[in-house]
């Protein structure tokens, strides 16, 4: 088992009242799973992804990732887990505009203290996996949207994280680029990656091997495919 959430709640204080965004969420993900979490806008998908990715902490409940209790970690420990154990892919890529594809892909290694030569080698390897070895010197504004997302995927896998998290990874892409991103996830999954993909799009979700649904902050089990 790679992660386990038990009875997770996330509340946001809003003036005198409180918004209950996640309600008693239980979630188990095993190594090698490819899970989609589906739900309408405002249902709590990104809030849940932020908790899974240790970008935020729950109001209550327990979160175990890789055998460690994340709800007991300091901010520095959480930052280290984010850097080493989780790869992130966002709808809007979140690339640094002044860096070329190679340096963007290498960023987690830079933050992780890896030396320059090894950074470049490993970033190039990751860019080869996403089919962009001929674009390493291009900055984001010199790349198409689909190419930017592939650089973001290279950045997400460069540190060989335990878990790949994607929040609406095809949301900003045309259908052809979206298909390419989903094909890449399928390939990474075949090679052993554990993937959690968040989407409101049923066609996108159907590429995963199991689907769970979130509605009004309540997560329910869904179907599992072969
Ligand atoms: N910092 C915050 N303070 C108060 N409420 C918040 C905060 N962040 C999110 N919410 C509320 O939590 C709910 C869930 O938000 P979230 O961003 O997780 O939705 P989502 O499912 O990702 O939606 P979308 O598909 O539009 O991205 C929303 O109703 C939102 O208004
Ligand atoms: Mg969202």
Can you offer a commentary on this structure?
The structure is a single chain. By secondary structure, this protein is of the alpha/beta class. Helices cover 34% and strands 28% of the residues. The chain has a 6-stranded mixed β-sheet with strand order 6-7-8-3-9-10, sandwiched between helices. Strands 2-1-4-5 form a 4-stranded antiparallel β-sheet, with helices on one face. α4 crosses α5. It is globular. The site of magnesium ion has 2 residues, from α1.
**Coarse morphology:** globular
Given as residue ranges, the uncertain stretches (5+ residues, pLDDT < 50) are none
Could you tell me which ligands this complex binds, including any ions or cofactors? adenosine-5'-triphosphate, magnesium ion
The assigned structural class equals alpha/beta
CATH architecture group name: 3-Layer(aba) Sandwich
CATH superfamily: P-loop containing nucleotide triphosphate hydrolases
Q: Please give the number of β-strands.
A: 10
Radius of gyration: 17 Å
Strand content: 25-35%
CATH class: Alpha Beta
CATH topology: Rossmann fold
Question: What percent of residues adopt helix (DSSP H or I)?
Answer: 25-40%
- Mind describing the biggest β-sheet? 6 strands, mixed
Q: What would the average pLDDT be, to the nearest integer?
A: 95
Q: Can you write the helix and strand succession as a string?
A: EEEHEEHEHHHEHEHEE
Spatial separation of the terminal alpha carbons: 19 Å
Number of domains: 1
Q: Please tally the helical runs, counting DSSP H or I stretches of 4 or more residues.
A: 7
Please give the order of strands in the largest beta sheet: 6-7-8-3-9-10
